[in-house]
Amino acid sequence: MRLCANENIPEDCVRRLRAEGHDVLWVRDVAPGSSDPDVLARSRAEGRLLVTFDKDFGELVFRHGAAASVGIVLFRIPQPSAAAVAERVCTTLGSRSDWAGNYSVVTERAIRMRPLQ
Description:
By secondary structure, the protein is an alpha/beta fold. It contains 5 helices and 6 strands; from the N terminus they run E-H-E-H-H-E-H-E-H-E-E. It has helices at residues 11-19, 27-30, 36-45, 56-63, 82-94, and strands at residues 2-5, 23-26, 49-52, 71-75, 102-106, 111-115.
């Protein structure tokens, strides 16, 4: 899977996703300090699913009409440790194949998906 990991995704998680064979562009590596609109534009331009802990992307897309990337997965989960986050993110992303075209919110108990415009 081609992913764009926002700056707030822990390094352990990025390393694990790469080890599992995902093509991960990590904002912290390539463009630290980028604005949310720039991150969204880059993920869209490169055809990458955006993975983030930042709920501002939903506002950008749904309230401000920003063009969406391939899809956005917002994780709203506890972060007890980087290793626990890596486990949850990798397991969740591998659990489905329909992330593209959706704004998805992952919580402890559920995954909610809303089609992107």
